[in-house]
Design goal:
Largest sheet: 2 strands, antiparallel
Order of helices and strands: EEHHHHEEHHH
Strand content: 5-15%
Length: 215
């Protein structure tokens, strides 16, 4: 998902399947073939996700072109609920979740290096995979690297949302945490976007509130 642009798609009628969507489909096939399911049954967050998906599809009827909106939102529901379900089934314990986030810093390093290159050379290496990616956006003289993402804000947000998930690894896995924090900060600042910076600040502020959770 971090290395392939959303421009790389397989078309089936009106539906577009990116590499990420194909991976979700493979995961779903595995669930069916192995009979894997939620080990502890459903919870409140599961039902909230279903309610969100239902409303997202239902609200398509309020658009000028309901059929086009429905197709787009079916893709959104497939992405969000598919990933959510796979993580719920495969990550059954805190150790599973920690193991997942120990891999994330390593996966982010190539993205961070590409965004540094993009910032310095004003060329996006992911243009090899998709048209229209060659030249990064420039605003007020600042180069906004985006990596494999459609917009620099999306690229920077990757680092922002991963940062508070990687920082807690510092206690037991300092080298991995250090690599991850560095990669996240590089991704955030090379994007040249204020949204990811504010998101990162908010995430770290949430971590600082942990000691006051009993209040």
């Amino acid at each position: 998902a971090c290395y392939i642009t959303r421009g790389q798609i397989t078309e089936l009628g009106p539906f577009h399947f990116s590499v990420l969507r194909i991976l979700i489909g493979v995961g779903m096939v595995r669930l069916i073939l192995r009979g894997e399911r939620l080990e502890s049954g459903s919870n409140g967050l599961d039902w909230l996700m279903l309610a969100w998906a239902f409303w997202l599809l239902l609200s398509s009827s309020y658009h000028e072109n309901p059929s086009a909106a429905l197709i787009t939102r079916l893709g959104n529901v497939y992405d969000a609920c598919g990933i959510y379900l796979l993580v719920r089934v495969f990550c059954r314990s805190f150790d599973d979740l920690e193991g997942l986030f120990r891999l994330v810093p390593i996966l982010l390093v190539p993205v961070a290096l590409e965004m540094i290159y993009e910032k310095i050379m004003v060329t996006n290496l992911f243009s090899i995979l998709a048209d229209g990616f060659a030249t990064p956006a420039i605003r007020e003289g600042k180069i906004r690297a985006r990596g494999p993402f459609a917009h620099a804000i999306n690229g920077g947000t990757l680092g922002a949302v991963c940062l508070p998930l990687i920082v807690p690894l510092w206690r037991n896995h300092r080298k991995v945490a250090l690599i991850g924090v560095a990669a996240c900060l590089v991704i955030i600042f090379t994007s040249g976007s204020s949204g990811p910076i504010m998101s990162a600040v908010a995430g770290i502020a949430d971590l600082l509130m942990w000691n006051y959770r009993h209040l």
